[in-house]
Each structure stands twice: as C-alpha cells, then as structure tokens.
Amino acid sequence: MRVMGVDPGLTRCGLSLIESGRGREITALDVDVVRTPSDAPLHRRLLAISETVEHWLDTHRPDVLAIERVFAQANVSSVMGTAQAGGVVALAAAKRDIDVHFHTPSEVKAAVTGNGRADKAQVTAMVTRILALQAKPSPADAADALALAICHCWRAPTLTKMAEASARAAQQRDRYLAKLKAAR
C-alpha cells in the first residue's frame, strides 16, 4: 500500500510517500515540504499547495492519503490556515478518487513513539529509526508527514476491521428491527 502523508500548513506543508510491506515493514519513497511566503495572498498560497499536491498525486499515485486532523489551538488564524491547506489536499485526492483519512497529532505520536504526548524531537528520532534513514528529515514538517504515513500504515488494518465490524453490526440491527416490525 502506498500512503501519502500530509502535514498541512500554509507556510510549510509537509508531504511524504511511503510504501508498506509485510507486517510493520515500511519504505520511505519521497519527502518534501511546500513553502509559501507569509506575505502572499491566501488564494495564491493555497494554489501553490494545490499544484504541488496534484503533481505528487499524479506522479506517485498513492492508494490513500493520511492528513493531520486540525485541532483547536489558541491561535485561530493558524488553525484556519492549516484547515484550509488540509481541505485543498483532501479535495485534490477526492478528484482522483483516492481515500483520505485524518489522524490527530496524538494518534500519530502514539503510533510512532508509543507516547501520544511525544515532542517533535522524539517523533523525528523515531521516524528516522523506523525508516532507517541516513539523516533526520528536516524541517519537522517533513518528519511529521512521514509520521502520518507510518501511523496510517500501522493503523489501517485495524481501521478496516473496525469498519467491517460496524457494518456487520448495522446489518444485524436492521434485520432485527425488520423482524420486530414484521412481528407486530
């Protein structure tokens, strides 16, 4: 499975591509950071992110995207920009019929380090170790994008099983309700 990890942001948007093998085996294929000038108009910044992401999607053809879920912060403008960048990325994937999954920062940290409150240095160190990289990915947005992709690879089988179980439970519930209705 090819997973594109995205750490959305207006100033720096981390992009990564990894491929999962058997078990927890993972190979890094590409990583980059899209940078946009903070003094550029919002629509131009979003366009730059969109164009780069679309190029990545068309070039690398990932099976799925893993995007960091925006969470509340004190800085509302930062959250808005992050959400807008994430939306542009999700839209580009949807246009290509590529599934998108969102993971919270604590889910990603827990998957990669075992600690949902790990700091950036711990995440970077573990990403470097897991992927057997020669050097630490830099800046942190690149490491975060890789961590998102790793998280999804390791969580995807569980997420799939949970979705299947939920669908089976819904079917059983519907059959039961139909029986009750027919018995009246």
UniProtKB/TrEMBL annotation:
<dbReference type="GO" id="GO:0006281">
    <property type="term" value="P:DNA repair"/>
</dbReference>
<feature type="binding site">
    <location>
        <position position="141"/>
    </location>
    <ligand>
        <name>Mg(2+) 1</name>
    </ligand>
</feature>
<keyword id="KW-0378">Hydrolase</keyword>
<dbReference type="GO" id="GO:0005737">
    <property type="term" value="C:cytoplasm"/>
</dbReference>
<keyword id="KW-0233">DNA recombination</keyword>
<dbReference type="GO" id="GO:0003677">
    <property type="term" value="F:DNA binding"/>
</dbReference>
<keyword id="KW-0540">Nuclease</keyword>
<dbReference type="InterPro" id="IPR036397">
    <property type="entry name" value="RNaseH_sf"/>
</dbReference>
<feature type="active site">
    <location>
        <position position="68"/>
    </location>
</feature>
<keyword id="KW-0479">Metal-binding</keyword>
<feature type="active site">
    <location>
        <position position="7"/>
    </location>
</feature>
<keyword id="KW-0460">Magnesium</keyword>
<keyword id="KW-0234">DNA repair</keyword>
<dbReference type="GO" id="GO:0006310">
    <property type="term" value="P:DNA recombination"/>
</dbReference>
<dbReference type="InterPro" id="IPR002176">
    <property type="entry name" value="X-over_junc_endoDNase_RuvC"/>
</dbReference>
<dbReference type="Pfam" id="PF02075">
    <property type="entry name" value="RuvC"/>
</dbReference>
<feature type="binding site">
    <location>
        <position position="68"/>
    </location>
    <ligand>
        <name>Mg(2+) 2</name>
    </ligand>
</feature>
<keyword id="KW-0963">Cytoplasm</keyword>
<dbReference type="GO" id="GO:0000287">
    <property type="term" value="F:magnesium ion binding"/>
</dbReference>
<dbReference type="GO" id="GO:0008821">
    <property type="term" value="F:crossover junction DNA endonuclease activity"/>
</dbReference>
<dbReference type="GO" id="GO:0048476">
    <property type="term" value="C:Holliday junction resolvase complex"/>
</dbReference>
<keyword id="KW-0227">DNA damage</keyword>
<keyword id="KW-0238">DNA-binding</keyword>
<comment type="function">
    <text>The RuvA-RuvB-RuvC complex processes Holliday junction (HJ) DNA during genetic recombination and DNA repair. Endonuclease that resolves HJ intermediates. Cleaves cruciform DNA by making single-stranded nicks across the HJ at symmetrical positions within the homologous arms, yielding a 5'-phosphate and a 3'-hydroxyl group; requires a central core of homology in the junction. The consensus cleavage sequence is 5'-(A/T)TT(C/G)-3'. Cleavage occurs on the 3'-side of the TT dinucleotide at the point of strand exchange.</text>
</comment>
<comment type="subunit">
    <text>Homodimer which binds Holliday junction (HJ) DNA. The HJ becomes 2-fold symmetrical on binding to RuvC with unstacked arms; it has a different conformation from HJ DNA in complex with RuvA. In the full resolvosome a probable DNA-RuvA(4)-RuvB(12)-RuvC(2) complex forms which resolves the HJ.</text>
</comment>
<comment type="similarity">
    <text>Belongs to the RuvC family.</text>
</comment>
<keyword id="KW-0255">Endonuclease</keyword>
<dbReference type="InterPro" id="IPR012337">
    <property type="entry name" value="RNaseH-like_sf"/>
</dbReference>
<dbReference type="InterPro" id="IPR020563">
    <property type="entry name" value="X-over_junc_endoDNase_Mg_BS"/>
</dbReference>
<protein>
    <recommendedName>
        <fullName>Crossover junction endodeoxyribonuclease RuvC</fullName>
        <ecNumber>3.1.21.10</ecNumber>
    </recommendedName>
</protein>
<feature type="binding site">
    <location>
        <position position="7"/>
    </location>
    <ligand>
        <name>Mg(2+) 1</name>
    </ligand>
</feature>
<feature type="active site">
    <location>
        <position position="141"/>
    </location>
</feature>
